[in-house]
Specification:
Layout lengths: L12 H26 L6 E5 L5 H10 L4 E6 L13 E5 L12 E7 L8 H11 E13 L4 E2 L7 H18 L10 H7 L3 E13 L4 H10 L2 H8 L5 H10 L6 E13 L4
Parallel strand pairs: 1-2, 1-4, 2-3, 4-5
Antiparallel strand pairs: 5-8, 6-8, 7-8
Helix pairs in contact: 1-6, 4-8, 6-8
Length: 269
């Protein structure tokens, strides 16, 4: 496997599978709505970059049918080996360094991947080059700019807000994650002079405890990349423990990440 700065790259198998399951159930309905707006057609050749747990790959494979196909790429395709679809090709592939065919795909999608890359512009150029002229891309990426408690008076809420925002800033400084990347998607498509650009963002609000958003963030605070902030001396163990603790509290309400989405069509000429 190629080297990665991805904070969950070395998350143990079962923990990462469970975390990706939560990510998929939170985001798939939005992603499918956005893909339906584009109108995925039978016979299309699709590219899924950073395919993760594979739910989007399975959905796309069913949409394009037997005459279409999906290339599912991931730096670590450990969860893509058994998707049960004949029209899927899985590739171990680093979008920053490994070649892709050019001008062959009808649709390319990438979700919660670019924000984890040290140079997302390289990945975006490569994905754009892989599209046929006139065909669609959909990028969906997180943005944690509003992360924090909804009610700062709640016990522990102010500390949660302070520490979580500090973590996102530290991740940016360490170059391991661009925590505020979602808002930049539109600019990339505009600079590529894509046609029919559409841009939106959905902000997630939820609670700790049994709420899926709280469970997802608790699991995300447990990935090795978070512990590395403690080991590196920039975050206290008690601060990381506080974030996890608040994610176990059903009565604590917080603003999570926004999921931005930008789509557009590669120019015909
Ligand atoms: C947060 S997960 C998102 C998974 C999936 N896209 C989803 O939204 O359900 C990020 C994924 O990007 C992959 N990834 C990270 N860096 C990558 C790179 N340089 N090239 C390809 N995939 C990468 C990771 O292995 C992981 O599967």
């Amino acid at each position: 496997m190629s080297e990665s700065t991805y904070a969950a790259a070395d998350n143990p198998h079962d923990a990462e599978r469970a975390r990706l399951d939560m990510l998929e159930s939170m985001n798939d309905p939005l992603t499918q709505r956005r893909m339906n707006e584009i109108g995925i057609e039978k016979g299309w050749r699709c590219l899924e970059v950073g395919a993760g747990g594979g739910s989007v790959v399975r959905w796309l494979a069913d949409e394009v049918g037997d005459d279409g196909s999906v290339v599912a790429c991931d730096l670590n395709p450990r969860f893509l080996q058994d998707l049960g679809r004949k029209n899927v090709e899985v590739r171990e592939h680093n979008i920053l360094t490994d070649d892709l065919e050019e001008n062959v795909f009808d649709f390319a999608h990438c979700r919660a991947v670019l924000m984890h890359l040290p140079d997302p512009g390289i990945a975006i150029q490569r994905i754009a080059a892989a599209l046929k002229p006139g065909r669609w891309v959909l990028f969906e990426e997180g943005d944690f700019g509003m992360f924090g408690a909804t009610d700062l008076e709640y016990p522990g809420a102010e500390e949660f807000t302070r520490v979580s925002r500090m973590c996102w800033d530290l991740s940016v400084q360490a170059g391991t994650m661009n925590s505020y990347f979602g808002r930049k998607l539109y600019g990339y498509l505009r600079d590529l002079q894509f046609d029919d650009i559409h841009n939106e963002g959905i902000l997630r609000v939820g609670s700790g405890g049994d709420d899926p958003i709280g469970k997802f963030w608790r699991a995300s605070f447990e990935v090795p990349g978070m512990q590395r902030l403690v080991d590196g001396g920039v975050l206290q163990q008690s601060e990381l423990d506080h974030l996890k603790h608040m994610m176990g509290d059903n009565d604590f309400h917080f603003i999570g990440g926004a999921l931005f989405a930008a789509r557009g069509r590669k120019p015909k000429t």
